[in-house]
Design brief:
Bound molecules: adenosine monophosphate
Structural class: alpha+beta
Oligomer: single chain
CATH superfamily of the largest domain: ATP-grasp fold, B domain
Number of domains: 3
CATH topology of the largest domain: D-amino Acid Aminotransferase, Chain A, domain 1
Largest sheet: 9 strands, antiparallel
CATH class of the largest domain: Alpha Beta
Helix content: 25-40%
Shape: globular
Number of helices: 11
Radius of gyration: 21 Å
């Protein structure tokens, strides 16, 4: 093995692991995955260890790996703690622990003076009524853990909905957040390695529908240097506080009063997929570099504008994308299912007009239009 080659073990075997491996192979890295079955998107990209095949499958992955990383913020913290006794796990336990609970996350934002919505944890109908009195309406009620793609959420607009909201998503710990009156949703991706080098991608704008990210535009239009710097400053405090190694993503609301943090993810992120073609170094390659202790790569965009459009539910006639010189197709080898992210398309453009025209062309052959 060359001095920079490492064996990377990934907990999870979905599309993020797949794209990490695709980015890591040119650097000579080797990959192993710990997944649920042999059909997962990463399965053919490295040594696959399937949970149900063998009681030793996790131990085998750990034995294979020089360094372990994970695909999901819902990875078991206790498991990571145990693995870390013998093999480095990046990002570390603290980043994982903080980002898998919305209450802890908001507590951390508050401690670091990163603005976020007012919030209150609730664990009963009575405490929900009290929280509504304190926070006011409208407000967003969410499960504290395991919510993703808008699942486990209820927007409370008036007090008559409180009982119904508790019935629908209650019976477990919830968080009530004040409703943020935002102009648009942004996110920023930062990367830090163990030598305390850190780099930042430009803020991107994210457009969701029914809680699922539909597309991102990178860099977000009309972001002043001051706003970009502010976002980087928030990331720097998070990276430092968490002693984070790897990619860290922060989702933000842009409001008339400035940036308001929503949530963070200690991993490569859907809103960073544009970086594969759109930036000098992709988020995936930078994550690999960071966890392997290598110098981080330049995060500058390669052209004025990029968009990343998710392929959701159905693949449709996306081969049409291959005829477009400024578009790139990524399919994750997943079966079609409503609401499922099956792939994405990156569009590169020289100007806003050119991007708008390309998005119009693209909408004609995306199933969801
Ligand atoms: P989340 O799972 O926290 O990312 O929430 C999913 C989506 O719900 C976000 O992308 C926002 O569009 C919306 N949302 C979440 N929290 C709030 C909030 N406190 N105020 C307004 N909209 C919110």
């Amino acid at each position: 093995m060359t001095p920079i080659t490492k064996r990377i073990g990934v907990l999870g075997a979905g599309q993020l692991g797949r794209m990490l491996a695709i980015a890591g192979y040119p650097l000579g890295q080797k990959f192993g995955f710990y997944g649920l079955n042999h059909d997962e998107p990463s399965a053919l990209l490295g040594h696959m260890h399937v949970q149900s095949d063998d009681t030793q499958s996790l131990a085998k992955l750990v034995e294979f790996a020089d360094v372990i990383t994970f695909e999901s913020e819902n990875t078991d913290v206790e498991l990571v703690r145990q693995i870390a006794q013998t093999t480095p796990v990046y990002p570390g336990e603290k980043s994982l622990y903080m980002s898998q609970h919305r209450g802890r996350e908001k507590g951390l934002f508050t401690q670091l003076n990163i603005p976020c919505a007012p919030y209150q944890l609730v664990d009963s109908l009575e405490s929900l009524h009290q929280a509504v009195d304190k926070i006011g309406l409208p407000a967003v009620l969410k499960t504290t853990t395991e919510g993703y793609d808008g699942k486990g959420q209820f927007v409370l607009r008036d007090a008559t909905q409180v009982d119904q909201a508790w019935l629908e998503i209650g019976g477990r710990e919830l968080i009530l957040e004040g409703f943020v009156d935002f102009q648009r949703e942004l996110s920023i991706i930062a990367v830090r390695n163990a030598h305390n080098e850190h780099v930042y991608y430009p803020l991107v704008q994210n457009v969701h529908h029914q809680g699922i990210l539909r597309y991102s535009v990178a860099p977000a239009r009309k972001v002043s240097d001051a706003v970009q710097k502010q976002a980087e400053q928030y990331m720097l405090s998070l990276l430092d506080e968490l002693d984070h190694v790897g990619v860290l993503t922060l989702e933000l609301f842009e409001t008339a009063q400035g940036l308001v943090a929503n949530e963070m993810a200690p991993r490569v992120h859907n809103s960073g997929h544009w970086t594969i073609e759109g930036a000098n170094t992709s988020q995936f390659e930078n994550h690999v570099r960071a966890i392997c202790g290598l110098p981080l790569g330049d995060t500058s965009p390669r052209q004025p504008l990029a968009a990343m459009v998710n392929i959701i539910g159905q693949i449709g006639p996306v081969h049409e994308v291959l005829k477009q010189p400024n578009m790139s197709l990524h399919l994750y080898d997943k079966a079609e299912r409503a609401g499922r992210k099956l792939g994405h398309i990156t569009v590169l453009a020289d100007s806003e007009e050119a991007l708008f025209d390309s998005m119009k062309t693209l909408s004609a052959f995306l199933p969801q239009g």
